[in-house]
Amino acid sequence: MQYNPTMTSSKNIESNIASAVESTVESAVAELTLAFGSLIRRIRAAAPSELHDLSWTQKSVIVRLDKDGSATAADLARAEGVKSQSMGAAIATLEKMGLVERMAHPTDRRRINIVLTAKGKAMRKNTREAKHTWLAHAIEKLDKKEQEKLFAAAEVIKKLVDL
């Protein structure tokens, strides 16, 4: 086989282009991950200070109960992917704080539902409003083109979440 510098150069160029594209994608993914992480931390920081003392599981329980309504401790444990004992401890703490309460199931007295109290609902509402207010003010500081890009990107991000 004869040496053909054109083929070798072409293959090297293609390989270099593929490596550059892969490197660019990896770099972009790393930057996107950092940007999402920073934004999420900033939004969370806008939450009322009493929320900062809660664990991730406790916060998730409040959000889930607000969104889906009452649930048993076992249902919450399954939904959050934690052991029943861990969920029991999280619920006990929330109960001591007056954010949730235990109520008998309406049709099966053997089951106990966990529900948000008025205080828990108010905390969730205040937290959501504080986060939305911070984000709305931050978005207002962007120019119109940046706002349009951000809102368009939101649709793409929703698709990523569903993959």
Question: What report would you give on this structure?
Answer:
The chain is mainly alpha-helical and 163 residues long. It has helices spanning 5-45, 56-68, 73-80, 84-96, 118-140, 144-162; strands spanning 71-72, 100-104, 112-116.
Give a nutshell description of this structure:
By secondary structure, this protein is mainly alpha-helical. It contains 6 helices and 3 strands.
Look at the structure and name the CATH superfamily of the largest domain. Winged helix-like DNA-binding domain superfamily/Winged helix DNA-binding domain
Query: What is the total number of structural domains?
Result: 2
Quickly count the helices: 6
Mean of the pLDDT scores?
Answer: 86
Task: Give the arrangement of secondary structure elements.
Elements: H1 5-45, H2 56-68, E1 71-72, H3 73-80, H4 84-96, E2 100-104, E3 112-116, H5 118-140, H6 144-162
Key traits:
single chain, mainly alpha, 2 domains, 163 residues, 6 helices, Arc Repressor Mutant, subunit A, 3 strands
